Amino acid sequence: MTIPEIVKKKGFAVTSELSPPKGVDCQKVLKLAEDMSCSVDAINVTDGQSAVMRLGSLPLCHLLMDHGVEPVLQLTCRDRNRIALQAELLNAYTLGIRNVLCLTGDHIALGDHPDAKQVYDLDSVSLLWAAQKLNQGHDMHENSLDGATDLCVGAVVNPSSTDIEPQMLKMKRKIKAGARFFQTQAVFDMSNIEPFVAAAREAKLPFLIGILLLKSAKMAQFVNKNVSGITVPDSLVTELEESKDPVQTGIEIAARTIREARSICEGVHIMTVGREDLVVEIARQAGLPA
Q1: How far apart are CA 43 and CA 36, in angstroms?
Q2: Exposed, middle or buried by CB within 10 Å (0-12, 13-18, 19+), for 235?
Q3: What backbone phi and psi angles, to 5 degrees, belong to 101?
Q4: Taking a C-beta distance cutoff of 8 angstroms, is the pair 153, 179 a contact?
C-alpha cells in the first residue's frame, strides 16, 4: 500500500525506519520490524545512512515484504550514476516495492570509507524526475521500456532550516518533478511548518513530520552542533539535562510532538537512531492507534 493510500484509508500515517545490518544476518532487524509493525504503517529502510557501508536497502525491503511489513525504499544519489539509479528503481518495482524515498545522500566524510568516491550524477530532484519518466514508460533519455513502473516516490524537506525560502523553492521543484508524498527532517518547533503543509495540501500530497528521539542532552547538543538545518530548542536541552531518566524524557518529548503534529499534518515519521525497540512505546504514549 502506498503512503497516499495509507493516509486515505486511515487519515494519519505513521512510519519509522531501520538500517540494514553491516553484514548479511538480518534476523535481528527483521524481529525489530515485526515488533514495530503493530504501531507503524510502513518502515523506511535506509540506504547507506551516514555513508556507512551496509547491506543494501532493496534486499531488506524485499525481506520485510515477505514478513508482511510495508517497506519504503530509500534511494540515495551519492553512490550510483543515473544508469544504476534507474536500474534500482526497476529492480524495486519488479520485486513488488511501491514506496520510494528519493534522497541526495550524506557526505562520504561522515562514514567508514572516507576514501570512497562520491558520484552525485543526479540529485534528489532529478531522481524524482527519472522515476516519473519510468512511470510513464521511458528512461531518462526517452528510450521506451518493456513495461512501465508505477512507483510512489517521496521526497524530503526541512522546515527547520533557518533559511526557509530555498527549502520552499526546492519543495516546489520536487512537487513538479513528481513527488507523491513528503517526509521532513526532524522537527522540534512547529512555528515554521505551516507554509510547507500548505504547499503539500495545495498539491494534494501527504505531509509526514519527522520525529527524532532525543536520548540525552548530549545527543541534543550534538545535533545542534553538527546537524545542519536542525535545531533542538534550549528548553528541550534543559529538560533532558534535568531529567533523571533522559531516555524516558526523550520518549515523552517525541510523544507530545506527535500529538501536536496530529492536528497539523497527515502523518509522522519516527526516527529512533538505534533504539527501534522504543518505537512502540513512543506510539503508545502519543496515543496512536495500534
Answers
A1: 9
A2: exposed
A3: -105, 120
A4: yes
Q: How many domains does the chain have?
A: 1
Domain that residue 277 falls in: 3-285
Cβ atoms within 10 Å, residue 37: 19
Instruction: Report the chain's C-alpha Rg in angstroms.
Output: 18
Going by pLDDT thresholds of 50, 70 and 90, the confidence category of residue 265 is very high
Q: Convert the pLDDT of each residue in 243-264 to its tens digit.
A: 999 999 999 999 999 999 999 9
Task: Please count the other Cβ atoms lying within 10 Å of the Cβ belonging to residue 264.
Answer: 14
Q: What is the pTM of this model?
A: 0.95
**163 assigned to some structural domain:** yes
How many CA atoms are closer than 13 Å to the CA of 121, on its beta-carbon side?
10
Within a domain: 197: yes
CATH assignment at residue 88: 3.20.20.220
